[in-house]
Write a structure and sequence with these properties.
single chain; 287 residues; alpha+beta; Nuclear Transport Factor 2, Chain: A; 2,3-Dihydroxybiphenyl 1,2-Dioxygenase, domain 1; 2 domains; 5 helices; 21% helix; elongated; Glyas_Bleomycin-R_OHBP_Dase; Glyoxalase family protein; NTF2-like_dom_sf; VOC_core
Length: 287
């Protein structure tokens, strides 16, 4: 291809990527997928290890975890093309505010593979990754930015404080997704069993605290048992907001949210996995 043809192709590819990024920012799943080929393969930050881009449902669920538009941009984007194939690579920055009010920002590596199909450039492969700290912790280095200088001899972060609930759910993947919709859970990491389907570990953060999940593993002596004898308490500022969101997501009301005898709002819910939750919040007085 001539230099002029190559420059034209790169300009076309950059326009496709710019529109794809814009669609992500405004959470337009249909437009995002319109820029992808039918056989688009994704190696994303989220599990599983690889997944085909088959529909808008999963993307819509992820978009729904954010309260407003997303911030998404590339830095140092490089595009190379040859014939009907091209690659774009650079550093991506994602930012936004989750449904529970938490603000997130993340830099990661992004590579896009594109094919020219019927004269139009389509994203056929997406690959995202973050580096890991090589101090034995194997923690993802999600706190880096392009200007970060890592002090390799610095001590690792201290262990998490307090008592952490560790739940066994019949479908831990579904439970994690439900807790995202119902309680604004932010996922910190997942590890899958050898079958690639069941979770042996999932770390969520809800209301600033940690919650761990796994699937039943009867072959290792951990069969599923119905949860009983405990309630997970969420002490929050706006009880009405947390309550309505959980109920809208499908939590069952077992005790209405009312002013309790000690003066706070209090109510209990049961999630689809049999776990009982309590919402506790102060009664706000008008000034």
């Amino acid at each position: 291809m001539s230099d002029i043809g190559s420059r034209t192709a790169i300009a076309e590819i950059r326009a496709v990527i710019d529109d794809w990024v814009s669609a992500i920012c405004r959470k337009d799943a249909v437009c995002v997928l319109a820029h992808c080929s039918e056989d688009c393969l994704i190696y994303s930050l989220a599990p599983p290890l690889k997944a085909p881009e088959t529909g808008a449902e999963g993307l819509e669920r992820w978009f729904a975890t954010w309260s407003g538009p997303l911030g998404y941009q590339f830095q140092d984007l490089e595009i190379v093309e040859s014939g009907d194939v091209a690659f774009a690579l650079g550093l991506a920055h994602l930012s936004g505010e989750s449904r529970d009010g938490g603000k997130s920002t993340l830099w990661y590596r992004q590579t896009l593979g594109l094919k020219r199909i019927d004269g139009a450039w389509k994203i056929a492969h997406q690959h995202e990754s973050v580096p890991f700290y090589m101090d034995g912790s194997l923690k993802a280095a999600v706190d880096l930015d392009p200007g970060s200088a890592v002090e390799w001899d610095a001590p690792s972060k201290p262990p998490m404080a307090g008592v952490i609930a560790y739940l066994t759910a019949q479908d831990a993947n579904a439970a994690a997704e439900f807790y995202g919709r119902a309680f604004g859970a932010r996922e910190e990491g997942r590890k899958y069993a050898g079958d690639g389907k069941r979770l042996i570990h999932c770390h969520l953060t809800i209301n600033g605290g940690a919650l761990m999940l796994n699937d039943p593993l009867p072959e290792y002596g951990y069969p599923w048992k119905p949860p009983e004898g405990f309630v997970l308490h969420l002490v929050v500022d706006d009880g009405n907001f947390w309550w309505k969101r959980a109920v809208a997501a499908g939590a069952e009301v077992t005790m209405p949210l009312e002013i309790a005898f000690w003066g706070d709002y209090y109510g209990q819910l049961r999630d689809p996995f049999g776990v009982s939750w309590a919402i506790v919040a102060p009664v706000k007085k008008d000034h």
